[in-house]
Amino acid sequence: MKLYNSYSLQLEELKPIEPGKVSMYVCGPTVYNYPHIGNARPIAVFDTLKKALSAQGLDVTFVSNYTDVDDKIINAAIENNASEKEITDKYIEAYNEVRNNLNADLPDVAPRVTETMDQIIEFIDKMVKNGSAYVVDGDVYFRVSSDPKYGELSHQKMEDLMVGARIDENTKKENPLDFTLWKVTEKGIKWDSPWSKGRPGWHTECVVMIQNVFKKPLIDIHGGGLDLKFPHHENEVAQCEVCNHTHLANMWVHNGMINIDGAKVSKSTMTEEQKSKLWAKDLIAHHGGNTIRWVLISAHYRAPLNLSDETIDTAKKELTKIQSAYKQAIVKLQLVNFKNVDSYDEDLWTKFIDEINDDLNTPNAIAQVFETVKILNQSLRVREIDENKVASLVNALEKMMYVLGIKLDHITLSDADKATYQKWQVAKKEKDFAKADEYRTILQDKGIL
């Protein structure tokens, strides 16, 4: 598989550090509210990536964290007269419900910041002691100048960043680019540390959790939304460089942002009313998990994705076309009591996986799905159906849709269903339209037709 590496700005072949095994970490949400549709895109993208790698025999360890300490979480706890854990538990559950409804696997490991605090404090202390961090009035800042490579991931020069930095005359930082590793906390949950009673800054947690879970400073893939590339991922790299002399991941993979009705949106510019209409849970409840997942993978993961009534309607029509062909095929195979086998159309599967392996090109992979559906429909229209061919096409289609994270509705016919179907065929042949309509209605009600 080749993936676009944001660090090198090139397509690169994935070469696992440990042959046959892939270590992948994706930045998870800050759990203070329900997941927005923008949070759902990396769920679909990186789940598709994991499924594609697994389908080719690789052992993938997928890790995604929960940021369960943050000012917004603390404020939500105060507003709701609840503990921070009550708030975060609620929204972690909501996030996992969205993940499940999008047919995505749960992470193999899902660490929480609050459960990794000892290691975070130890890591920050290491940076203080090696001079890459400094303490001011109980706060700890990372000294950006300690990493001469700073800016390499986001491809920005230090001097350009300095020009664009907002300088606060009252800042305690040596350099406006320096970022917080630990801060004194006046309210909400806090921990004892060598510097003060407080909590960590945002940028340290992922570095620590990666090392804590994988037991090594360098992994194969680090993923997340494009908005995390700078400063979050840049700051992760800097900390790993000064402590471990490596940039944390061999491949940095970033998904593009979501546009709404063709316009760029962000949480900072959206009204509360707009946000409330774009909760992932509500879109899934209204349109179905398959439909929203299909929309999320319909564009190349690095490209902007447009969410609109039109794209949702298109997704529904496309899925209906696929499901219809699939249903017809499995019904006809069952009507002749064909025992399905494990073989699949290897040529079509290879073409599909070749597109997936080309930088996770889901639009082209979807085109291969429709080519398979086309051939399947043609195979069903002949007078004498080749059951082995139809079964191999069905199996190939199932494998493709599994990688794309789409659940196909599988209908199992009972003996009574088969009898009704045969009666319907006889009634049509004998032009007994009343009986034919009666049997057709029964079959339609059961979803067979």
Automatic annotation (TrEMBL):
Cellular component terms per the entry's GO annotation: cytosol
Organism of this sequence: Faecalitalea cylindroides
Family, as annotated: Belongs to the class-I aminoacyl-tRNA synthetase family.
GO MF term set: ATP binding; cysteine-tRNA ligase activity; zinc ion binding
Protein name: Cysteine--tRNA ligase
Names of the cofactor(s): Zn(2+)
Catalyzed reaction equations: tRNA(Cys) + L-cysteine + ATP = L-cysteinyl-tRNA(Cys) + AMP + diphosphate
EC code: 6.1.1.16
Location of the Cysteinyl-tRNA synthetase class Ia DALR domain: 351-413
Motif ('HIGH' region): 29-39
